Amino acid sequence: QVQLVESGGGLVQPGGSLRLSCAAPGLPFADYGIAWFRQAPGKDREAVSCINLDDGSTYSVDSVEGRFTVSRDTAKQTVFLQMRNLKPEDTAVYYCAAAYRGFDVPNMCTLYSLLEFSYWGQGTQVTVSS
Asked: pLDDT-derived band of residue 1, with 50, 70 and 90 as boundaries?
């Protein structure tokens, strides 16, 4: 049974940085893509950054492009979300989720329904506030 485990959330001031981790032991990287989602209070869950775990190609949505970077460490079976220049509107619970054959990263980030993600982590809170 695959389990995704996020870590790295916390409280940070505007303009600060955080790096989230998503440990995915047992997930066959050649067959999956990972999306980082976030959900703010009262809002829908939205994908912000995605990565094809096989070839490492990435995509980030416009609201975080240039500030968030998604990467993977295949040896450690871990995916990272490096977040820079954080803004109060980035405050949310962040989740990682795995989609089988999630190879087209723009589509995975913008068109996939939540049901297409087989595995989800428990979420980690990110709060951006002074």
From this structure: confident
